[in-house]
Design brief:
- There is one protein chain.
- This protein has about 250 residues and is of the alpha/beta class.
- The strands form two sheets. Strands 3-2-1-4-5-6-9 form a seven-stranded parallel sheet, sandwiched between helices. It has a two-stranded parallel sheet with strand order 7-8.
- It is built from eight helices and nine strands.
- About 45% of the residues lie in helices and about 15% in strands.
- The chain has a single domain, classed as Rossmann fold.
- The longest helix is centred in the middle third of the chain and has 29 residues.
- Helix 2 links the parallel strand 2 and strand 3.
Amino acid sequence: MSFTDKVAIVTGAGQGIGLEICRRLTNAGARVILNDLDKELANEAVRKITNEKGDCVAVAGDSSDLTVIQQLVNTATSKFGALDIVVANAGITVYGDFFDYKPESFFEVMKVNLGGSFFLAQAAANQMKRQEAGGSLLFTSSVTGHQAHKNLAAYGMSKAALEMLARNLVIELSQYKINVNTIAPGATLTERTVSDPGFESTWSRITPMGKPASVEDIASAALFLVSDGAKHITGQTLIIDGGWTSVSPSPY
């Protein structure tokens, strides 16, 4: 897949899945605005990509902050002249028992996972509409939006809502040649999950394909859905979980 001359924004990309999506996009010729809440992490991620000859700039900040969202879009257009692809990947997970889940945790999860994705899509779609050349939007959901996970009611709720957002935006965006889809990763080996000593062994045991996903597995699916080869695919969710949602054994 070639992304030559395409301009992309990827949020939550200082490490893990987001970083790998950025790497793959730049390796395929795209110019990328990389966002992460952690400024040092964002700058280090950009250094890694530029060392591989990728064209990438960092815009650090809270991806649910409307000022940061506009800064992302403005940077894409001022530095690279257009905006073609947006991957709203940023999200937070706050575990907690339903019976005493804190309101501040609930609203923070909704603010980042839903609000950030919604208003980034809005700002990006307005820019793509003005350009009249179309574009691609991609949200990062989760298998927890399809199957219940203990202590993740709020998180799973937010991820299921993202998938409905993608379906609804088909009505709003198709006339402007903008497609919008969602990926729903299952258990994935990232810097965060590998720090859990039981994560890989547990998910290898309960995943039909015999192992958790790698960040490369998730990035491959993401790149397809924002490529020109997927322009007639819109409003869809692609689950990448090694078959786990087909059988759904609990990790607990």
